[in-house]
Amino acid sequence: MNLLERESTAMFHTYKRLPLEVDHGKGVYLYTADGKKYLDMFAGLAVNALGYSHPRIVAAIGEQVGRYIHLSNYFPQEPQIRLAEMLRTYSGYKKVFLANSGTESIEGAIKLARKWGAGKGKTEIIAFSNAFHGRTMGALSLMDRPKYLEGYGPFLPNCRVVEFNNTGELRKNVSGRTAAVLLESIQGEGGINPVTPEFAEEITNLQKSSGFLVIADEIQSGIGRTGKFFGFQHFTLSPDIIVIAKPIGGGLPLGAIIGGPKVADVFEPGVHGTTFGGNPVACAAGIAVLDEITEHGLIDNARLMGEILFSGLRGLQKEFPNLVKEVRGFGLMAGMELNREGEGIVAALRDDGILINCTNTNVLRFLPPLIIEKPHVETTLESLRKAFRSL
Ligand code: PLP
Q1: CA distance linking residue 56 with residue 250, whole number of Å
Q2: How distant, in Å, are the alpha carbons of 138, 278, 341 from that of 147?
Q3: Coil, strand, or helix at residue 9?
Q4: C-alpha closest to that of 149 among 170, 169, 134, 127
Q5: What is the distance in A from the centroid of ligand 1 to the CA of 35?
Q6: Which protein residue's CA is at the shortest distance from atom 13 of ligand 1?
Q7: In 3-state terms, the chain is what percent helix, strand and coil (to 5)?
Q8: DSSP 134
Q9: Quick one: which of 34, 136, 211, 378 has the fewest CB in 10 Å?
Q10: 16: helix, coil or strand?
């Protein structure tokens, strides 16, 4: 039996898999058991910011494993504290809580906002249509796409999903009871849809006048991918809480809630916690990720490579106006919306040794590692042109 056959017997059928058996990864490439090499332009869905088997991450993990893999929350732990100090420095925020994943960090952020609002009469959380915040019940309560929600209700009370980028709707739904507004400033799973500058400005105006918290879901867009440390920094947004995950653990499970001054003192011992969150091995990897990104100018690289990628994608849009509807995104978080389903193009690139992803059925998504170089971008664009021509 091959891997897919064994998997379908042993595991719940929750994922659509690619027909590839990976043997190992190195840098920007994946190598399959049948000896093929693939340029990975979606990098573990934005997790593998430094590509595969990065020596700095491998060394950091090895060293921490030799010291201790786990201690309970009764002990202060150097890797957790160092990582939190670094996140404070790079964000300019006050406090960090370490969790295991994106969705668990979103749950923690919801709890933080609710606790902040308790006693002020602020219990409502507002989020936006077409967003993706995770798979747990709190996150689902703040999403609207039926494919994620059907069959799972009832959801959390006092949660509203308002149309994304509709300022009138937002104004109608905000009130003195609003505790927080949660948003992806650049929606990832929803098809790389950035917030409009006017909508961002309205959120910030209402945040000041209404006194709610803004929570930025930076799980996909954070840590340099968009050419700035956080995606929201492309807009006039000033979140009170930032949620990160995906790339921060270098491939190990890790997420974080980063809080500004308004929420810095809301949590006290015993009110929130996790057994594995902030695992010291994952934190050691996270420190290596941040050191590598900052010491090697990888945020600038994301911006520069993003310029080449976007100029190429826009060129293809001009060349194939009947196929390409729109090109959207920032840096190395790029989406190309097609006038047709994208899976055929994804398969054509795969046959050409390049891995991209399609989200929302017709948006080709590019989330390459931040270590990508110009020839990788050019090869991808050439392969895309070839695939478009063959249609
Ligand atoms: N928020 C965003 C923007 C995401 O892209 C994701 C995952 O794709 C999540 C939340 C959920 O993260 P996780 O899968 O680690 O729970």
Answers
A1: 10
A2: 16, 31, 17
A3: helix
A4: 134
A5: 32
A6: 102
A7: 40, 20, 40
A8: -
A9: 34
A10: coil
